[in-house]
């Protein structure tokens, strides 16, 4: 039960931060939506498809078996570590960007962040997303989610 709650709360709080931050940005007259580097529909579809993979991990944690085979304990432990690590990067990256956070390329001039996690990674949030996606595929033992 604790595991399922943790697996569920991490994406819930991250999405609350993301969308709640968007409401705060709008109050400050800051446009959080940047310019997508590819066709807008494809760009947002790729961003929001992450939610399907996160949902797979959440459903598996609550007992909805999506696995193709029995998940070894070590694989489950590794996936939980990656899940937590990935969300730690997501939260740190989002909070580290402050008012400079954009979904897409900023429309106005912004400065390059080179403090905190941004000293080691140009975009730690992408590393965090990749970690959570790998975690979801390992936790569910479902190669379809990986694809």
Describe the protein in words.
This protein has six helices and no strands. α1 (about 1-25) packs parallel to α4 (about 75-95) and α4 (about 75-95) runs antiparallel to α5. The chain is elongated, with a radius of gyration of 16 Å. It is mainly α. The longest helix has 26 residues, at about 1-25.
What are the main properties of this structure?
147 residues, mainly alpha, 63% helix, elongated
Question: Gist?
Answer:
The protein is mainly α and 147 residues long.
Could you outline the blueprint of secondary structure elements for this entry?
Layout: H1 2-27, H2 40-48, H3 50-61, H4 73-97, H5 124-140, H6 143-146
Helix pairs in contact: 1-3, 1-4, 3-5, 4-5
Helix content percent band: 55-70%
Which of globular, elongated, flat, extended, rod-shaped describes the shape? elongated
Evaluate the radius of gyration. Answer: 16 Å
Note poorly predicted spans. none
